[in-house]
Give the backbone structure.
Amino acid sequence: DAKTTQPNSMESNEEEPVHLPCNHSTISGTDYIHWYRQLPSQGPEYVIHGLTSNVNNRMASLAIAEDRKSSTLILHRATLRDAAVYYCILRDVKYGNKLVFGAGTILRVKS
Amino acid sequence: NAGVTQTPKFQVLKTGQSMTLQCAQDMNHEYMSWYRQDPGMGLRLIHYSVGAGITDQGEVPNGYNVSRSTTEDFPLRLLSAAPSQTSVYFCASRRLAGGRGTGELFFGEGSRLTVL
């Protein structure tokens, strides 16, 4: 399985944008990039995913580098409710049944 | 909408006891999986299933058994509990059709297990 590397923690001010980076230098052509987040004492929840093009949804945006070796999850206006652990995960479409989580990035949001 | 339901939410066992964590989903998802999460760590995949009668091992399968007799249910059995199995366990499911690279995973609320 291709691996991802994320910073252990990041801090943001409320109402400001947050850019959460993820490196995946060994990504294969069939790997989708997925992001999940886990709020305190809850199960993870899906945020967004993409393959090659940048993606937007109601929760966030995903910017994928042209060489696909890195990506950035963008929260446009952080709120206190966005404080969570954010996981960047690769899923190979050929072997897409397993979803392997890393340690993730702890996002702290200051008011 | 019930989604993914896990029972029990909390359980305390003694070393050597066996038990089953239940997981049920009402979304007709083909794929179901079990993860464990230890304090301060990410989730590790224990076992997964892509349909009734089909199961496979994840990263940390030792000490756990699974079976999938129906689409809805995917129980996780601890055969002889050990303190190292103290953890929070999450069940997750997703649709398989429509491309295996996609498919949002839906998680249950978790089952907190303590083995003394």
Remarks:
- Residues 23 and 70 of chain A are 4 Å apart (CA to CA).
- The mean pLDDT of chain A is 90.
- Strands of chain A lie at 9-13, 18-23, 31-38, 45-50, 55-56, 61-64, 70-75, 84-92, 105-110.
